[in-house]
Amino acid sequence: MAGYEKYSYTANSVSIAMISEPEQVIFSVKNELKEGETVSASCSVYHSCPASPPVFNWSHSGENVFQQQQLDAGQWKATSTLTFNPTATSTLTFNPTHVDHEKNLQCSVRYKGGKHQTESKKLNVKYAPVNVKVEYKSEVKEGESVRMECSSDANPPASYEWHNETGDQLFHGKVYTLHNASRHTGALYCTAINTIARNKSSPVQLNVLHAPEIKNMSSCYAEADVVKCVCIAESRPASTVHFVLSDKVMPKAKVEKHGLVTIGTLQVEFGSSGFVRCFANNTQGSADLTLYFLVNSKMQNIYISIAIGAGGILVILLIAVGVKKCRGRSVDAATTALSTMKAAKDVEHPQYATTTTKRIEKTYDDDDCLGAVYANEPVYGNMETDLDDAIYANM
After folding, report:
1. Number of helices and strands (H, E) in the chain?
2. Burial level of 154, CB count in 10 A (0-12/13-18/19+)?
3. Which of 292, 294, 296, 142 lies closest to 231, judged by CA?
4. 115-164, pLDDT tens digit by residue?
């Protein structure tokens, strides 16, 4: 266009302002989060290119929603053109857990042309106690004291209680000391408590070292023509078991171990001895028990027959002695009675004519000697009546 410099357009001038850096990212998230609840965090920037909006990236996984909003154009004077300043907003929705506590949540924005911005914020997540555990000495001798400490990961920090296996509370505090540990001490656990919830540790079963204990069920029994003896010992650590018969250690004993229980089995012949001794040993001490033999059925029958025979002989001897004594007493009583009667009659009746008296002598039955004396003796009712008739006839 020739002579363009002769014209002037100053009345219709336009001012253009340019910035080299985008405005700061607007980052928003709650100051205090609770584990498990749904939380939203937003990251916003201003830009002027709706056809090529910024790209957002989050450091945490979740549901990412992208939106754009056109703002009012009230900032311009005069005639406006198709100019608008949209706001790009990215919202992240996620469920925080205890692993998110004190971690940075980061939002990154990348513009067309290569510009890049980053904004982050440290999360404060409230959560119930996790990883509740008990630290203690792995092995303890019976009678010793055990120090146990409970710990957990919690926000806010947890307080602690100690319970036995039935749920009874033993102690309140982080450190618990169990006195006089025993093999019979049951399992226990600690509970961590805060304002969110309470959780407990796994049960703790103490490994109490103790000397062997030989169980009462240990015994000997007959089997065929031999005797088998079984010795059962319980201890921590497991015991060694051996048998002593007639002051000699029996090398052929069979020994089996089942955890803390050791079972020793010995087979011996009858007649070796009347008993065997079982010994159990471990690093904590020793124990022993005398096991007596039981008689097998064949020997038992022989012993029973001998006992019955001896008892029968004794009964026969006692009966014989009793009969002999009884017979002697019966004959003496009868003779004495007859003599007394005869003497009385001779004295009381000398003036009467003599008569003949029949004397009956009877042999008594051994089965009822006393009854025969009183029932059949002439003195007591079975006398002949010739004497009495003669007496009364001469009166």
Report:
1. 3, 25
2. buried
3. 292
4. 888 888 888 889 999 999 999 998 999 999 999 999 999 999 999 999 99
Q: How far apart are CA 276 and CA 220, in angstroms?
A: 9
Within 8 A by CB and 6+ apart from 336, the residues are none
Tokens 């089942």, residue? Answer: 258
pTM of the model: 0.57
* Omega within 30 of 0 (cis) for the link into 237: yes
Give alpha helix (H) positions in the chain: 297-348, 369-376, 386-393
Task: Tokens for 381, please give them.
Answer: 């009712």
Catalogue all structural domains in the chain, each as residue range(s) with its CATH number: 22-123 (2.60.40.10), 127-205 (2.60.40.10), 212-294 (2.60.40.10), 314-393 (no CATH)
Among 153-162, 265-274, 309-318, the range scoring the smallest mean pLDDT is 309-318
| Closest alpha carbon to 106 in 22, 21, 23, 25 | 25
Under a CB-based contact definition with an 8 Å cutoff, are residues 241 and 213 in contact? no
Return d(Cα 245, Cα 278) in angstroms, integer: 9
Cβ–Cβ < 8 Å for 85, 50: no
- Residue in 42, 46, 66, 29 with CA at minimum distance from that of residue 115: 46
